[in-house]
Amino acid sequence: MARLPSHRLAALLLLLLVVVSPCHAAAAAAAGGGQRPTRPKAVAMPVVRDGATRQYVATFQQRTPRVAVKAVVDLSGGATLWVDCDAAAGYASSSYAGVPCGSKPCRLVESPSCSYIASCLGSPPSPACLNRTCTGHAENTVTSSVGRGNVVTDVLSLPTTFPSAPVRQGPLATAPAFLFTCGPTSLTQGLAAGAAGMASLSRARVALPAQLAGTFRFSRKFALCLPSVDAGVVVFGDARYVFDGMDHSNSLLYTPLITRTTDRSSEYFISLKRVVVDDRAVPLNATLLDVGTKLSTVSPYTVLETSIHEAVARAFAASMATAGIPRVPAVAPFELCYDGSKVESSAITGEPAVPVVFELHVQSEVRSKVAPWMVSGANLMARADGGALCLAVVDGGAAPEAPVVIGGHMMEEILLVFDLEKSRLGFSPNLGAFGLSCSKFRLG
Ligand SMILES: *[C@@H]1O[C@H](CO)[C@@H](O)[C@H](O)[C@H]1NC(C)=O
Ligand SMILES: *[C@@H]1O[C@H](CO)[C@@H](O)[C@H](O)[C@H]1NC(C)=O
């Protein structure tokens, strides 16, 4: 007796659904330029490393009709996504819109102002040529050059699966009005071939993490898995970190993300307490470390202030000498290089099995405790010309912007989870220790 009404209800609902669905579909098509509005839990942005520049290049889908756009991953200070919108660069889209001067989104970009133009000099209106439009800074953080351009919105899509099928174009999540800045063509100088701009992962309000979280209503959180070979990924939102069927979500160590009052707060800093080589703390100027350690994908290698570089190199050289590994002449930009043929390779990963235990002791989530960031041979050493294997750190001079900058090479094939809600960074060991790599990440 209780079942009959629910049967009827189901039939009624079915009828309603049949009647309602055509206009529902039409509304969705009208709203999203043909794409169904989506509310994914997480989206993935594939990343590869460019061989020539060692920059990490991300791919996303943008515009109408949709095209794949490449931009250099900017985990440093950049404020937003910027791309070259000049007509000559081939920006073509029916879905872009200028951001009005003085509007709320306009106030979120760096150095906003308003542009008035007399004409587009014969070219049709485009994102690069709009009247009475908000303009803002676009920064090439590789070359430290800044340009100005229009602030516009356009459709931006990212796959909800990884790896995403490049031909079939698997399921995509679409942000109908993703805000970005147009950079002039000249600003792309110094970027990897094919890159049209830079995709900022900073904590700025209009950088990718916050903007995607706002659009899709997921957490302000992203995971960065930089590739040394094959494919890497940036995963935005609430994902389980599954590699080859194994969930690594609960096997991370955490360190607080700190804000430096002396600096632009959109960069990521952690608190490095000491550098430990073969169980001995390297004697360092603690005052310098207190400034904070920066994470940057724009720096290919880890950069150390001169006195820190000297002390770390001395400790490392002593350990290598004890292990009997012969030194070879330095190969720029590195100082300490060794005969690669005398260093065994790991049976699992093929990476150099350096006979030195190198650890970064970072602040743990528990006050007064440290968390060990074990730097594996793959992250510590770089292969240079002539078979040399070099300590992959460089001297940043006596007064660098930050005394320690952890660069891309030291972050490769590691799962790094930037949790901006909880203001903490989760890190895994090098995935090679589990026979894994970033390319084994699976989403959806
Ligand atoms: C741009 O806007 C200004 C102010 O409204 C106007 O004077 C000017 O003619 C406009 N330019 C174009 C190309 O429409
Ligand atoms: C440590 O670094 C600080 C900041 O650069 C500097 O003022 C101080 O002189 C350094 N101390 C030593 C012992 O070198």
User: Using only CA atoms, what is the Rg?
Assistant: 24 Å
What small molecules does the structure contain?
2-acetamido-2-deoxy-beta-D-glucopyranose
Alpha plus pi helix count: 7
- CATH topology name of the largest domain: Cathepsin D, subunit A, domain 1
- In CATH, the architecture of the largest domain is Beta Barrel
Task: Compute the average pLDDT.
Answer: 88
Low-confidence stretches: 1-34
CATH uppermost class of the largest domain: Mainly Beta
How many separate structural domains?
2
- Kindly, what is the distance between the CA atoms of the first and last residues, rounded to a whole number of angstroms? 41 Å
Based on secondary structure, the structural category is: alpha+beta
Total strands: the figure is: 31
Question: What fraction of residues sit in β-strands?
Answer: 25-35%
Helix content: 10-25%
| Biggest β-sheet description | 6 strands, mixed, barrel
InterPro entries: Aspartic_peptidase_A1, PEPTIDASE_A1, Peptidase_aspartic_dom_sf, TAXi_C, TAXi_N
Pfam families: TAXi_C, TAXi_N
Signal peptide: 1-25
Keywords: Signal
